[in-house]
Amino acid sequence: MIDRKALWVTGLMIIAMTTAALWRVSLLADRSHMTLSGPAQTVTVPTLALFISPLCLLFVVAVLIAQKWFVSGPEEAMRPWHRWGRLMLVSYGVILALMQANILGRSFGVGVPLSRPQIARIGFVVTGGLIVVLGNALPKLPWLSARLSFWRLDPWQWARHRRFMGKITVVMGFGIIVGGALLPLRLVAPALICLWLAVFTASIWYRMKLRRDPSPLP
Amino acid sequence: MNLVFKALSDPTRRHILQLLRKKPMNAGDLAEHFPIAKSTLSAHFAILREADLIEAKKSGTVITYMLKVSVLEEALLAFAETVGIGLPVQAPLRKAVGKAR
Predict the structure, then answer these.
(1) Chain A within 8 Å of B66 (Cβ-Cβ)?
(2) Which residue has the higher pLDDT, A113 or B14?
(3) pTM for this predicted structure
(4) Structural domain boundaries of chain A?
(5) Is B1 near chain A, with CB under 8 Å?
(6) I need a surface site. Which of A18, A44, A160, B85 has the fewest CB within 10 A?
(7) Nearest to A157 by CA among A199, A202, A215, A205
(8) In chain B, helix, strand, coil percent, each to 5?
(9) Interface predicted TM-score (ipTM)
(10) Distance from CA of B86 to the nearest CA of A (A)
(11) Measured between beta carbons, which residues in chain B are less than 8 angstroms from residue A163?
């Protein structure tokens, strides 16, 4: 779920990041690759790296917009969801914009005096922290009715599902913080994919379990 | 956050939250679990609602209460329950404290 204001802010962020990426690519002699300089080493990367941040943000916006089509509820129930979505989008957008700015800066020979692994680890820790905050607030979000009957939960089942999701999302956030800070970087991406798949599977399993259990609500 | 700490510091209110973890209940059902006046229980409900730890749904004359706690609040509830915040000091412990003084 996303409100108009958050959509505007995020849309502008995506446009700004994409424009900056296109502008940087237009300045390159070889438009397929660019050189990033850093304190430890200089590396050549595909220019597509400049488009990762706006694409990631666009993906999250698309997911939140799509989510709106699957649920319905009164305006007062939507408002906390909009606030939650806004916090997620704007925070995530800021993280991605900073990453984008760092890549752009390095392509010009300036940037923060940290190595790429250090920046990646900071990114994982901050993202994990954001996921912890978002997961913590999940159980407080009000009930919404799903448009698809097989996906529908009553308010009691919904509350239990939200509580469960909140807990495993917080655990996932801490997992990202610990994994991002301590694991060898080549293992972080596969570990995160496994973690995300485990959370997704657990969510589906718990939803099915709740639908089988009799609800105390009439 | 102060409201949450205040709400969780009382054993009766924690007991209400524990009962609501199992299922949503109306005021009458909850009152059966406590040997206290209904007005006192209503005051507890008001504090829990003020702290945004429960939500009330009114259908006709019946108000059904449901749990509404964040992950952190649930962890605080479990902690307060484990430590026994707000519970009267048990007799042997009271004696030991008295001797130590």
Answers:
(1) yes
(2) B14
(3) 0.84
(4) 1-113, 115-218
(5) no
(6) A44
(7) A215
(8) 60, 15, 25
(9) 0.78
(10) 26
(11) 67, 69, 71, 74
